[in-house]
Structures are given as structure tokens and as C-alpha cells.
Amino acid sequence: MTQASIITIGDELLIGQVIDTNSAWMAQQLNVAGIKVIRRVAVGDTWDEIWKALDEESTHADIILITGGLGPTADDITKPLLTKYFNGKLVINEGALQNVKNIFEKVLNKPMIESNFKQAEVPDTCKIIQNKRGTAPGMWFEKDGKVFVSMPGVPYEMKGMMDDYVIPELSTFFIFPHITHRTLLTAGIGESFLAELIKHYEGTLPEHIKLAYLPNYGMVRLRLSSRGFDRIAVEKEVQEYFETLQNLVTEHLVTNLDEPMEKVTGKLLAARHKTVCTAESCTGGFIAHLLTTIPGSSAFYDGSVVSYSYKAKEDLLHVSKELLQTKGAVSEEVVIQMAKGALDAIKSDYVIAVSGIMGPDGGLPDKPVGTVWIAVGNKNKIVAQRLHFRFDRERNTQLTATNALNILRKFILADI
Amino acid sequence: MTQASIITIGDELLIGQVIDTNSAWMAQQLNVAGIKVIRRVAVGDTWDEIWKALDEESTHADIILITGGLGPTADDITKPLLTKYFNGKLVINEGALQNVKNIFEKVLNKPMIESNFKQAEVPDTCKIIQNKRGTAPGMWFEKDGKVFVSMPGVPYEMKGMMDDYVIPELSTFFIFPHITHRTLLTAGIGESFLAELIKHYEGTLPEHIKLAYLPNYGMVRLRLSSRGFDRIAVEKEVQEYFETLQNLVTEHLVTNLDEPMEKVTGKLLAARHKTVCTAESCTGGFIAHLLTTIPGSSAFYDGSVVSYSYKAKEDLLHVSKELLQTKGAVSEEVVIQMAKGALDAIKSDYVIAVSGIMGPDGGLPDKPVGTVWIAVGNKNKIVAQRLHFRFDRERNTQLTATNALNILRKFILADI
Question: Of B80, B66, B78, which is closest to residue B123 (Cα–Cα)?
């Protein structure tokens, strides 16, 4: 079976200055196209390491996709290396040059400098991949029946090339099986208890269907995967096992699609033609941000008040000064007033309000770091609950947000 | 020189279901400790692939750090594999068992099941690393002068083990050089023009000092790196070259520290004892979120109004219905009213307001997707400008947020 390996190039990956989001995206697209990614490797901007990686990955895989190292500056050595590796010489490509000129004339409105012309040089042993979103062209090499593709590291340029050219071209070059994944999301049950619950089921799975546990933010995703050349048969079989799995975890099931909590709650609201607003203290707008990452979120989301200071809680949400002083901002009474205040101001159908201490500082003896009050409700009823997380600021914020969205989801489902 | 390789294990990495943030963090910590990371490799939950990765990475590196594959469920094969790879047998570790029992008794308040006991099993050929944050212990192996460390994939558990044990222990095992990086952030100048500006300077850099260009969200970071056993000499030399670099890019310099835009703007506000609030439409709370990711942000951040709907713009920010109808929400007039409305409501010293079309839908002939109006100001003066981004929803949102923070930064610096 055809296998791919992804090489990402850049010292910044090895000193941890940037997080590699490219290879996850690429793996996703390859997978959908039926190409199994077997390895992902990151190496620095070092001649020997890149050379060795090309040698080594071509022993593992049939398709080697490379990103990074193609910028106009002196720290990028990938292009000369590829020229040598594939026994070519650098030549100006007219199509690529025209593209660079267009970008400078029409988009940037600036004269070109020498290094910009260099962007149009490619080895004469490659097929060029036009870059519609930037100046560095992609390169397609073939050697001993293997395909090597080099693309820029800028995510949206790489993504454009993958969609427009690389995936379609690979599909004419190789024959791929159909790969299918089905994922569901559970909440409120730990990984080991979930495993216990479906232990017998797991034993009944045929060898070629894989089950994976993916814990994330206090929830667990379960994924079934299978592959084969008969698309209909593969999907039918996985679907049957997936239905059995859903039935086993019904009580904890959030969604039977591979989608995040904010999308589940957003879709539920949209389906009922209802809207939500939020009143956020400790999460500082993160719940609003999650909801608005979903295209078309204006259908179910009206707006938020981020009341970080006491003053903002009083002025924007009409939380009483007395309550803030006697109970503190992180209290049941205040979070309920925040919820009511947001509903009064924004007049959505539902509301989420949160107030807590995310850390690293601000903890109190009776309210340690990680203490959070969450209120959800509508104009008839507001319910509040206290949760406690034990992690760092970032993770506490994420857990608060996903839990709040889940609490609202359950409130809506119970609200007839 | 001692080199490390990071192996991350999990099918989810190879189908792109999760983004690998662990290895970036690990690389950062290793780097600070003077350990050069030479490669990062991700492989699936497959016996042969993990085995080959251990073989291969030990030809590249002296230290091999492994994360993932240690959960209590059946898809995790790393522990049996490591037991065989290092010629051991699985035995219950008393310390690890006690830890698992404690977590179940004191934190989870649940009875243990069989798979939980299995978490306390380790190969008898390793030193155990206690997990203070979860049930799966870490494992430290030594073979042919090389060190192999296996840790859970859960980020905060792995991070705890690295800080508490792995980094200190490695430092007693090997002698590391001092590694130093200095990073500055520029805005308003493209990578190739920046390269042209510092071309001569780049030529004067000694072989052992590396310069890297890191473009991100329309800004470019420049990083100088060097290493050596004489810490003081290494730092002094880099500092001199770094100062020259700063002088060359003064006009475009945002910060001479490795910190994000929100921190630069936040620190500037805090230093002047000023606060900011935001009125966000298209960014849906993302600017508020960025500002509140900074611990202690309550010193300079009061709150925000996220006015996603027309109604929220009218009710919360008193934008006039007439303006919304005649000019549209994405207009100079509306973004200025949003800014004024937020200042009136929250009474901060400064304000940022944004309104735009992030895509994929919602574009108009005269306001295509990516059109954004940004207003910044204080009670005396509000200025607005129109920007246009050409990317996807996520990137347009990020670019809007960082640009808005930079525009406010420049406004504050000009505001005497």
C-alpha cells in the first residue's frame, strides 16, 4: 500500500519557536485522499540533516512531501540542496517569474529586488507547481518510482498547492484504497472507565478495524478506522460497528461527528432557531471566540460581554457592588447576576456566564486557582455550578470553555 | 556535541486529528538547557514503526525522548514494546501503584478497575519517573551510552515530568554547552525587504552565529543564535551583534524580546498605568482572549463588548440603527461609534474597535471578504483605518487582532 512521509524543514521547529500545524493539515488531506501517512519528520536548516532525511524517508515511503526552507532569504538552503539531490541545475522559470512580477505589481505595489528574482529559479529536473498565493513556486520530483514534492512553509500557500495540484496529481500517479474514519465525542467519563464499558465490544472488532481513544479537555473521542479498495463495503462495515459503539456510550455521547464542542452546541442552537450570548470574566472572551470560529455563527450567536474588572461587571452587567464585595467575583451569586445582566443587555434566548480563577496567581484559601463558577440558562431559569480544574492558565481556560458549552448543551436538550 | 531527538507516538498525529504541541514545548525546554534537538519524528501506534524509529533515532542522537502511547487502553502498545526493546519484563512498581491509588481515592473518588492497576506496571530495566499529575509513570532507559525517556502524551503530565526530573537528570548525565537566542519582532516590512535592509550586516556575522527569519501574521521575527561552553563570552558576543541588528531595523521594531504582540501592547499599557477595552465584531472576542492569555492582564485590561449582531451593536454600544442601515456594519462610521460606545460603557483609557468580514461568506462587491475597519483611540481622539486581508477565516481573524494591537501600540506611543 502507498505510504507517505512528511518532512518539515526549519530550525524554528527544533527550538520550539513555532508549532508545526502544517503537517497535521497535510496528514488530514492525504488521509482523506486514501494516502496513509506513515511518518512525520522535522529537521533543521542544515544541509546534512535535510539530505539524510530525504535518503531515510525514501526508504520508508513512496511519497515524500516537504515544506519549508523556500523563502527569499539566506537561511533557506532547501532549493540548492534539492537541485543537487536531483542532479539538476537552477534555471529561471518563466511562469514563476511572471507570478512574482504580478504579485509585486498588483498586490504589493513595490519594485522587485534581486532576491525576489531568485524566487523564480527552480531546478531543471522538476515539474513546477505554480503558487497562486505567494512568490515561491512548489517543485515536483520523481526518482526511482517515488514522488518528492517541495512546498513553501507558509500555511495558506502550502494548502493552496496541496488542494489545487498535489492531491489531484498524486491520485493520477498512484492507486489509493479508500480510508474511512468515524469519530464520536463523549463527556463525563474517563478513558479507563470508557475502555471498561466497551471492553467486550473491542474484542469483537475485526483485525482490520482500529479503535483509538483520544482524550482531550476532559472529554474522550473514540475513533474507528478502516481501509479497503471497495469503498461501499468498507463504509458499510464501519458504519455497523460505529452504530453499536454509539449505542454502548449513549449516556455519555456528545456527538457522533468529528467536531468540537462549540460546533455541537452551535448547531443545536441553530437547529432550534435560538441564539446565545455570553458573559465572561475569567475566560476573557475565549467562549465567544470559540463560537465565532464557526462560519455562519451569526445565526446562533449575538454577542458577549467580557467583564474582566469589577467595574465592567457593575457597569455592563449590573452586578451589585455589594455582592462583589461580600461574595467576591468568583461566587454563585455573582455568576448568576452576570448571566441575568447579559440576558437583559443582549436579549438572546440562552446565556452562558463564567467567573473563576485561572492562575497562576489570584488563588484564595477557600477559592484556589482553578475554581470556576459556570451559569447557564434562559429568561425563565438560570442554573449555576462550581467546577475545579487543576492545570495551568491555558488549560484551565480551555476546560472552562468546553465545559460551559457542554453544560449549556445539556440545558438546551432538557429545555422543552 | 550532545544531540536529542523527539519521537511522538500516536495514529492521531498521522491522520492529522491532533496538532503536536508537545514536541515544540519539549524542544524549547531542551534548547534552554543547552541540548540541541536535531530531529522530531512522529510515528503511528504500530509495533514495527515504533521499533524502527527507536533504532533510527539512536543513530542520529544521544538522547531520545518519547511521548504518547502510555494510556490505559488497548490501542497503546508502547509499554510492551519498550519492555522488549530494552530486554526487560513488566513488573508492578510499588511507588507507581501508590500514586494510581492516591489519584483514585483523593482526586477521582472512584474505585479502581483492572486497567488502572496495569498503569503501575513498568519494565524492570528502567528507572521510573513518578507522575505527580496523572496515573501513567514515565520510564528512563540507558543503552550504549544513550538515554531513552518515555513519557505520557498528556501535555501537562509530560511537562511536569520534564521540569521535575528529565531536564535536571539529563544535566547530570551529559555536559551541555550554553545556547543563546535573541529575537526581535518587526512589523510593516516584508521578509525580502528586511533581508535587503540587513544584507551587509548578515555578511559580517561570524560562521557560528546564525540568523533566522520567522515571518508570522504579516510581521517578521529575526533570531540570532549561538552556542559555546563559555556562557559569558557567548552572550556578550551575541548581545553586540543583536544591538547592531536592532539599530538597523529601528523603524520597524516592535520588541527586542521573544514575545507576542499582545504582550508588547499589554506591557506598554501596564507601564503607563493605563487600561484598554475592546469592541469586537468580526474577531468575536479574539482580541480580548489574546490580552487575557497574559497572566496579570487585569492590570491593563478592563473588559470588552463582543457585538456580533446588529442588535448587540445597537443595544450594547449605542451604534445608531440609521448608520448601520446606510453605511453597513463594516464601515468607518460604525467602527468609530463602536469605539466610542465601548469607552462610554467601560471607561477605560484606550479602546480598540474592529468590524470586518472574515469569510468564507458575507463578502460584498465593494466590501470583499477580508475587509476590516479598525479604530483605536481614547476619550479625546479616535482614529480609524481600513485594512484588507486575503486569507481564510482563521488567518484573517488573527491578522486583524495582531494588527489592531499594533495600531493601538503606535497610538499609545504617539499619545503624550
Answer: B80
Q: Are residues B273 and B366 in the same domain?
A: yes
Instruction: Indicate whether A241 and A357 sit together in one domain.
Output: no
Boundary of a domain, candidates A151, A173, A195 = A173
pLDDT in tens, B81-122: 999 999 999 999 999 999 989 888 877 777 888 778 888 999
Is the distance from CB of B358 to CB of A298 less than 8 angstroms?
Answer: no
Q: Are residues A184 and A131 in the same domain?
A: no
β-pair type (A63-67, B253-255): unpaired
Q: How big is the A-B interface in CB pairs under 8 Å?
A: 331
A373 to chain B, minimum CA–CA distance in Å?
18
pTM (predicted TM-score): 0.80
Q: What is the CATH number of the domain that holds A133?
A: 3.40.980.10
Q: Is the pLDDT of residue A73 over 70?
A: no
Q: Tell me whether residue B115 is in a domain.
A: yes
Number of domains within chain B: 3
Point out the domain boundary residue: A120, A145, A173: A173
Q: Which residues contact B389 (CB under 8 A, 6 or more apart)?
A: B370, B372, B395, B396, B399, B400
**Cα distance between residue B40 and residue B61, in whole Å:** 11
B276 three-class SS? strand
- A217 and A97 inside one domain: no
For B24, name the nearest residue in chain A, comparing CA atoms only.
A16
Q: Which residues pair with A304 in a beta bridge?
A: A278, B306
**Residue in chain A lying closest to B211 (CA):** A75
Our CA-based measurement puts residue B92 at a distance from the nearest CA of chain A, in whole angstroms, of: 18
Q: CA B265, CA B301: separation in Å to the nearest integer?
A: 11
ipTM of the complex: 0.78
- Grade residue B73 by pLDDT with cuts at 50, 70 and 90: low
Do B152 and B10 fall into the same domain? yes
Smallest CA–CA distance, residue B403 to chain A, in Å, is: 17
Whether A56 has a pLDDT exceeding 90, the answer reads yes
Partner B, chain A 229-258, Cβ-Cβ below 8 Å: 258
Judged by a CB distance cut-off of 8 A, whether residue B191 touches chain A is yes
Q: Are residues B240 and B366 in the same domain?
A: no
CATH of the domain at A189: 3.30.70.2860
Q: Which residues of A touch B108 (CB under 8 A)?
A: 190
For B107, the domain range is 3-173
Per-residue cell: B375: 479604530
Domain CATH number, residue B329: 3.90.950.20
> What are the tens digits of pLDDT across the range B136-188?
899 999 999 999 999 998 888 999 999 999 999 998 888 888 889 999 999 98
Residues A405 and A301 placed together within one structural domain of the fold: yes
Same domain for A265 and A380? yes
| Residue A49 near residue A17, CB atoms below 8 Å | no
